[in-house]
Structure formats: structure tokens, C-alpha cells
Amino acid sequence: LFSEAWRYNCFVRTKSNVYEAFGVGLMEEFRGNKVLAMNIFESLVEEHPIHDDAIRTLKEFYERNPELKGDYYS
User: Fold this and answer.
1) What is the DSSP annotation of 31-45?
2) Distance of CA 42 to CAs 47, 68, 74, Å?
3) Is 29 helix (H, G, I), strand (E, B) or coil?
4) 4: number of Cβ within 10 Å
5) Does pTM top 0.90 for this prediction?
6) Nearest of 50, 59, 61, 66 to residue 18 by alpha carbon
7) pLDDT tens digit string along 9-28?
8) Cα-based distances in Å from 58 to 8, 38, 41
9) CB 40 within 8 Å of CB 34
10) CB neighbours of 72 closer than 8 A, spacing ≥ 6?
């Protein structure tokens, strides 16, 4: 249900909460939009370079999707 609500723009991302952004990235990955999810996770690390959860989330994303592995963990 949440995925369908997200799909039809029933939610608005404000970027004011890092954990909200994690949820959005994970939802996009779940829906198959892996490049968009990667962009979200990479942006979070760029915006919050010492945030342990941001770094870990990006690293785990690359572990799940090694074909998209970028410069952060090469």
C-alpha cells in the first residue's frame, strides 16, 4: 500500500530529514528504480559526509547492487 501511495505522489519528500531520505531511497530501490536510489544515497553522503548511517546505507546499497558500484567504494 505504501509503495502504491508513493508511486502516485501521495507523499512529498522535503529533504529536511535524513532518515526520510533513506526511506525514499529504499522505496525507489524496492520499486526497481536503482539509479534513482543510488543518486539519493550518494547525495546523502555528499551532504552529510560524516553521517555513519548515510555511509553505511550507501555501502549496503552497493553490496546489493554491485553493478552500480561507484567511486565511493571502488
Assistant:
1) TT-HHHHHHHHHHHH
2) 9, 12, 14
3) helix
4) 9
5) no
6) 50
7) 766 666 668 888 888 899 89
8) 26, 7, 5
9) no
10) 42, 45, 58, 59, 62
